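Troubleshooting log. The previous run stalled partway through. Resubmitting the same two chains, unchanged.
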Amino acid sequence: MMSLEESVLQGDRLALARLLTQIENDTSDGRIALDILFPHAGKAHLIGVTGAPGTGKSSLVNQLALHFRRQSKRVAIVAVDPSSPFTGGAVLGDRVRMKDLSGDNGVFIRSMASRGSIGGLARTTANAVQVFDAAGYEIILIETVGAGQSEVDIAKLAHTTLVVEAPGLGDDIQAIKAGILEIADILVVNKADRPGAENAEKALKSMLDLGHPTQRVYIHHGSLAPAPLPVEEGKEARGSEMDVWVPPIQKTIAADGKGIDELVQHIARHGEYLKASGDWAVRERARLESEVEAALQSALMDQFHEHVPEDRFNKVVSQVFDRILSPGEAVKALTTGNGRLK
Amino acid sequence: MMSLEESVLQGDRLALARLLTQIENDTSDGRIALDILFPHAGKAHLIGVTGAPGTGKSSLVNQLALHFRRQSKRVAIVAVDPSSPFTGGAVLGDRVRMKDLSGDNGVFIRSMASRGSIGGLARTTANAVQVFDAAGYEIILIETVGAGQSEVDIAKLAHTTLVVEAPGLGDDIQAIKAGILEIADILVVNKADRPGAENAEKALKSMLDLGHPTQRVYIHHGSLAPAPLPVEEGKEARGSEMDVWVPPIQKTIAADGKGIDELVQHIARHGEYLKASGDWAVRERARLESEVEAALQSALMDQFHEHVPEDRFNKVVSQVFDRILSPGEAVKALTTGNGRLK
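Second attempt completed without errors. Output:
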């Protein structure tokens, strides 16, 4: 019998669905499969789509998927919902989008809801994305709801991040944009047929200009310097014009597909820019480094809990509860003081 | 000369502001002060106020602060902004609220913006709250913007969580409520003079009824069972009527202070309920346990990075980047396989 990961590599959708469940539940089979699939990943273009509720992100993602399908690319949609940690329910309207995309074997849609911490969700999402990548999905759309830190964490996964706005969503949403703008590679004003679309576009443009007086110098997600590019004989090293990416603002009406062509072109251009400038590699490395850090963190905690009996841990927590020890002192009591296990 | 923490305990506002900066920057002086102040904390009523942008949370918090001040209680406001991780700017409009509260020495307002991960922000906020608590602030209002996982994490700090809604904020915001509702101890429909307020109230009511067909059984933030209560002679153990908290829905107009009296009464009743039912202690313990866990996690990571030279770590990350090792295999390479340091 074929293993789950072999079946996934051969394009078996049922096996893929099963493996994603294993990964969501963080089973040991799931972890083994991730190790096996890892060398097969690293080819997909990861596209993050984020924005406040009411901007029409889901319809937009839908349209993007349809468009990429017309280019015969295999598309995965990962809809991440960090807002519903308790119910575990997906609010992102799969049912709605299924209508257009169902029956197409080149599309796979998966919703992920937080079951624990946001850190856990970001990690599960990263793992799911890796599985899709290994399974040969060339375009992976990662959709997140909201405009908070959680979305930023998830956006860090992507090579290209789309921030979606829409006219008429209230004033304070403007204020929130300031932070989210800085992660945007492409800005989308969706529902562009609504009153206020021109104003929304103008506001975004002036915010961009404000943040980046002349040209927007590209800010990396990670803190690493770009990897040096090999320079071919007879060719100059890639010039400075490619070192700057000015986020374009694209108006769309997802409901009837207007502006989607142009948006897809912006996405393709951004992908080319990333590869030419070396930023693609920088983002990959930063992303993989934080994956290693996260895996390390949970391994160290597992090891701690294996090493320190539960009743010992609970006793120390009780001393904290009784205000005999501070949390910092509790850590010193549980370790040799510098974090090393006793 | 008096130490910073002594000055804080004596009510020196300047020292308090300085210490909060130390804590935001996670300095070693800040950590020491936290240890020293810890036994003095544990008395304040921590009140979380969360909800989507546009609901008028800041005005509401303002009004609550004014009201508690009339009861001669010392009030701290911690305005947490997880939406702006890059700019570090506070969007919560301190300037506006300052008008009513400035010049009152019984009120202290502090904005906190995320500088790194949301986990970091939640921890810094917890530490700031602890300092206010130790400094004798009896009411601590923790205001967060948005409705995502980040807010949930921060809400876990609070004894009493208010979820603020307002009429006419668009459709999908309804969908988001499902998750956030489950952390609500008290629901507030602010801007209740606007059209749609009755509908918003009805919608919330039916969501509450839907989630909890007969009576809402109280769901603890943590997973711990309630601490057993001492039963006085001749008295029965506290009955089941106190074991259930049905979140009230309160309409307010923060702009002119309508409904604030009633809201403050709900908050006081919830505090009494928590103490009578034993849930106060349960929440305290759960909160302190996650503080210990977080402190432990960062101590273990510090220890790891002390133990493993940076170039060794970077070399392993490079192997991951080259897809020679998976992140899981990288962790095994860096530890003895079960998370123990080599």
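Takeaways: The domain at 41-228+235-283 of chain A is CATH 3.40.50.300 (Rossmann fold). Chain A touches chain B through 82 residues (CB under 8 Å).
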